[in-house]
Amino acid sequence: MQPMLSSPGFPLGYLEDRRDQGTLGLYLRFADHEPIYGLTCRHVVRGDRKVDESYKYSGAGQPQYHIQGNETTFYDWQIDLEATLAENNKFIKSTEEAYGRWDSYQQYDEKKQHLCPTKQDREHLQRQKLLAVYTEKVIQCVSQFPQKSQRTIGHLAFHSAFQVSTRKPGYLTDWGLIELDLKKYEDHPENRVFIELDFKKHEDYPENRVLFNTKHMPEMPSHQLDVMLSKMDKGHLPLSGIVPEEHDSFFVAKRGARTGLTTGVKTEIEAVIRLPACGSDDILCWEMLIVPVKGTDKFSDCGDSGSTVFDYKGRIVGLVTASTHEPRPKDGKRKKRTGQNVVPDTAGEVDAAELATLVDGTDITFAAPIQWVLDDIESFTGMKPEII
């Protein structure tokens, strides 16, 4: 078993001694080129380079290597897995003892008939046993790769400067590409997002064997849920196609290294103020805004930058670039992007009633429309990127 997760959404850190970490969100390749690249944000892989510096690896000198999971994350994985296994084993032990009492003598006592385990109860116990066996195997695998060098996934190939694009007015470029070392992957990297599972067979889609846990998709319309389930394969949702940026508000999801699978609502593309780095001037730019659905605290958090935003059909929406609890409209006003060549500075203010209603304190995630990102990558590298 290889150490590298092959589905996007895993934590991306530095091989060198840095605590910074983000998310690898999408796999790309260039036409007529063999390497596969992992897409993330520029600020996740920038190293010590200044905000106005871009990067292209020339092949000379020591490359900047990246890994899956920094030391803290790797340690947390082990702790969580061991805690899960201990909880499963505790449940299995107590349940088997209870069923043993029933099988031995309680079934003959009329006053104990309410303790009779159902078929579903026994099936649940069997699933927990299978989960315990699987968790033990994962722990054994993870424990083999304690050294960071063993979790190296590849090296930095390109990243943009952190600046407003000359090609797309108002777009703040913030992307990076990692050239992957495919020898580290057991399975070929694919754009298939893992969806939470609860190990129950779904009546309409038995080929999935498991039903994804709907608690991660609150308020998702049933017809959309049915479409998503029909597209899932072994607990994964394949990502393909791009949602046009002009689409109205709709339900989206993402899997990030920090907050895992979360859901939200994509609203308008609005003008926001971004602070690139300490000592740099604020930048007014266009960002796609995503708010968490009712009943959830946030769509993303620190460490989720680079995550891919997708819809219930698996179509790609955008790239998570930042989030904030206190978004700052320019001078307290709000502006909506109304045309392809409109820049935030010259855009007219709009009535707040025309935009999504945002309650004070609402966590807001910023995302760049994926087509903007792909177009800028092509402009920067001279090669057309393809989503694999």
TrEMBL record:
<dbReference type="InterPro" id="IPR009003">
    <property type="entry name" value="Peptidase_S1_PA"/>
</dbReference>
<feature type="region of interest" description="Disordered">
    <location>
        <begin position="323"/>
        <end position="345"/>
    </location>
</feature>
<protein>
    <submittedName>
        <fullName>Uncharacterized protein</fullName>
    </submittedName>
</protein>
<dbReference type="InterPro" id="IPR043504">
    <property type="entry name" value="Peptidase_S1_PA_chymotrypsin"/>
</dbReference>
